[in-house]
Amino acid sequence: MSFNVMDILIAFGVVAGVALLLGVMLALISRFFGVEEDQKVKAIRACLPGVNCGACGYKGCDDYAAAVAEGSAKPNLCVPGAEATAKELGEILNIEVEAPKDMIAFVHCNGHCEATTKKAAYDGITSCKAAAMLYAGPDACRFGCLGLGDCAAACPSNAICLKDGIAHVDTSLCIGCGLCTTICPKHIISLIPQETVDVVMCSNTQKGADARKACSNACIGCKKCEKVCSHNAVTVVNNLAKIDYAKCEGCGLCADACPTGCMKKVIFPDIPAGVHPRDLVSGNQD
After folding, report:
1. Among 15, 147, 213, 217, whose Cα sits 20 to 30 Å from the Cα of 284?
2. From residue 186, how far is each of 92, 103, 143, 147, 282 by CA, in Å?
3. Residue 155 three-state SS
């Protein structure tokens, strides 16, 4: 079969001409009909951590940035970004932005391997959600941490690790996004103020004797903590002590009075000075 060079050149020219025409048309459409990116939105979005946690009340950082730019959202709703993000947003908006309260994730469970036992052997998917579907999990305490790491997998700042059968939060890495609180099937993780001094490390609402059988570190609902609190910050509801952090003065009397040690005095280290929460998010670290 012989090829005519001229035919080939003509075909090539036609294809090249069509491609050029389409390119010009796309450029014109983009120029006259394209939506110009709002530089203000872009600048605001760059300040946000990029966790897309929804703690601000919006679907993600993009939606929140757009809402802040148009003035329909307050600029201090980004809990993960905390003071650093509030400061940057204030500079962009040319206003003073009050930083949101520093919050950190806390696991309300101290049912480690030595404190509780197993009621069954679990040999399924390595997932708390999956394990919880089988008779509330294999642990004797059906309220405790399952220790299979759903929260650790969800944490964008690698702040959660598993040790002695339960999850632990490194608050120097925690950005307070709250993703772990939503994924935990036991709902034993909550966001608490960074300056918290007293905590309840239990979620068991059974009566005292039953709770102690399940875990030696369990709250027994004795109300000794409630009685010694002069600020009415501690109450026992459904056999479990609760702390109202808006009233708590951090005196530590409740922890001293607790006979099982489920109430603890704590000091949570904050994110190191000079480190932006955005830099702790997985994929954003240098």
Report:
1. 147
2. 41, 20, 6, 11, 25
3. coil
